[in-house]
Amino acid sequence: MKKFPGASFALLLSLPFSSIARAQEKSAHGNAASGHKHYSLPATPDTVQWGWFDVNEKPKVTVESGDTVSVETWYHALDKIKPSAEDHALKGPPMDEIARLRKENDGGGPHSITGPIFVNGAEPGDTLEIRILKIVPKEYAQNFNLPGKDFPTGLLPKEFLDGFVRYYKLDLAKNETEFKPGIMLDLKPFPGILAVGVDPNEPKEKAGPPIKDDKGRTSTLRPWKNGSNMDLNELQAGSTIYFPVFEKGGLIWIGDAHCRQGNGEVNLEALECAYKEIEIEPIVRKDLKTEWPWAENKNYWIFTGFDEDLTEAMKIAVRNTVDFLSSQKMVPMDRYEAYALTSMAADCRVTQVVDIRKGVHCEVPKSIFVTHKPAAHPAAAKKE
Asked: pTM of the full predicted structure?
């Protein structure tokens, strides 16, 4: 089977909508009845790593395909960059301490990642479908840019020579936070990092510090085919993402929790937070071949591309979109038609520009397919 983001959607989307809907309902309500289990993975010094993926890390929980897992995440730098719970002025670590912590883990990411989760049956060459079921943030968040005079990070480091940090109290009842008096932001939480085990053929770095350290670990700084630091703000509760599997068991990590982010993430960070719980459902897909991460929610199919060159990232995302459209069976079309439809209907956005490898994602609205109403999770049809 040809490998591209939506390869077996061609088969799935040719099914009658009623069959897809019945399968979707069965999946949504049949977890306990079908014998699937629920697990919890708390954030502890044993389950959280700082800035590096290590495929030799012992799995912290082992699950079956279709089980659910509630994962806790920490704030950056192993939970050190956050305000004190009893400090009502929200005076967390100052910029000089944040800069010191950043240099302490130079080459790795600032991210605290929880995992890995081992999924029985996942083998290299499979696809791992991960459904994001629920996200419950903790009560604080922060945003900073590192001083441009010392760190070449963010989009405009030479224009922002000094560092800046601000901490926020989140109103979880109202699902909002105050940026400053007169500006309120609603919360749209999503994991900045959702990853599987690393690609052994990931290309050598074109910029920035080495991808791997002398222990063979892979930095969390860059997004790639295994996901990692994608910062894709569409990965909110109710969405699904599909990854190629590179390591036995898949190996899932979650971290870099965001509570809101604009596309681009231009000053280096989003509204960075941590989660009491992010509940996921990983499903091993033997029938689906995937090369690049792609996602969906109730409104869109979403195709990604990553490269140090933003134009190249755009080409990858557009090519993946064209591949999907030219292979789906709802309304058959050739690649020229798919290229044209991508130009007319797909919304290609700059995911982020601050993670060394830049990201683009193209969103195809499901609503344009008027003769067939796609389900939010068409792939659920394979679970009947």
From this structure: 0.90
